[in-house]
Amino acid sequence: MQELNPDDEYQEQKKKSMTNVQLTQKQKELIERMGVFYERHGIPPMEGRIMSLLTVCDEPELTFDQIRELLVISKSATSSALNMLLLTQRVIYKTRPGDRKRYFTSNIVEWQESFTESFQKFFGVIKIMKEALNQRTPNTPEFNGQMAEFIEFIEYLSIEFPRLYSDWSNRKTNNNKNN
Amino acid sequence: MQELNPDDEYQEQKKKSMTNVQLTQKQKELIERMGVFYERHGIPPMEGRIMSLLTVCDEPELTFDQIRELLVISKSATSSALNMLLLTQRVIYKTRPGDRKRYFTSNIVEWQESFTESFQKFFGVIKIMKEALNQRTPNTPEFNGQMAEFIEFIEYLSIEFPRLYSDWSNRKTNNNKNN
DNA sequence: TTTTTGGTTCTGTATTTTCAGAACTTAAAA
DNA sequence: TTTTAAGTTCTGAAAATACAGAACCAAAAA
Lengths: 179, 179
Known about the structure:
homodimer; 179 residues; mainly alpha; disordered N terminus; DNA-binding
């Protein structure tokens, strides 16, 4: 084998860094299991697998090609799944200066921000629920009452929920102070 | 037209009660809109439509055949959608003495019971999350820390959440007492 | 300038889902 | 006993989804 000149070494380094990350058998297995877990929650299989990969893999920041290679899938599958995951805020990416690649990360690292938001989205039920309630006949007071209560409770939650979070994070920082 | 004998009258009555319920154009429209709303949340179209029907329709208790007729769908579609909705607890049914039919209702009338349960199911994320965290390399303390925090918060929620509900229902009954 | 990198978009196929329609089932009514 | 009511289950077709593979594209590197 020939001696490598500096450039070749650099290229070699780059090539290596692309396929550097490897998965153990156990990790592959866990990714599949998490995948079906996500699937059962209405997330498409490939998106579920990518989300799982990004929390299971030792390296939390993976590039497009690393994801493609680790999961052994096509570019198109990688592209569309990643774009959907970005759209639905389940994955984010960072860039690095002088590097064209994007480094994808599970949005678990920013769950604090995204959590409240996705809950807020869930609370969107009440909008259409209210509409349904408003058009209802007055002849079913019991049913209407239950609907109204449900709506009230969701509204209550949407107010109390952020407070619950801030309580928790306050408690956490206080604990840290005392230790 | 011939005079009806008592039996015919009874049959007539039964037939009528089967097709009695009607939907206004506005209601049909709302059902479709709610349907796509549910679809966007991962619920199959027909199940979404049935759920919507059961909250929009003036009559909150509908039979198999009323649902089938109001939505103009086949028996098989009605059957499988209803069974899935029963399985996932989104719809319940009541029976009536001396009546073989089942009367289906949106589980919104029992949301108090089913809400906490479905939240509990959501909290199931933490089980597989913990597994993922446990197998992680110790070389990514920041990422692992974020994961741990996320898990902690979900666990905190699963405890605080039921309390939030009981607080709300207490506040409600107190309000009613004072009024 | 040409080449490479990091993707996106298009085309087509295999799979899955979602129904309709008809045959079947089971308990009650006639 | 036969008939009816209230569904369930089976068969199959149409539509939607999930990909692979190849062509394409735009910016950066050579």
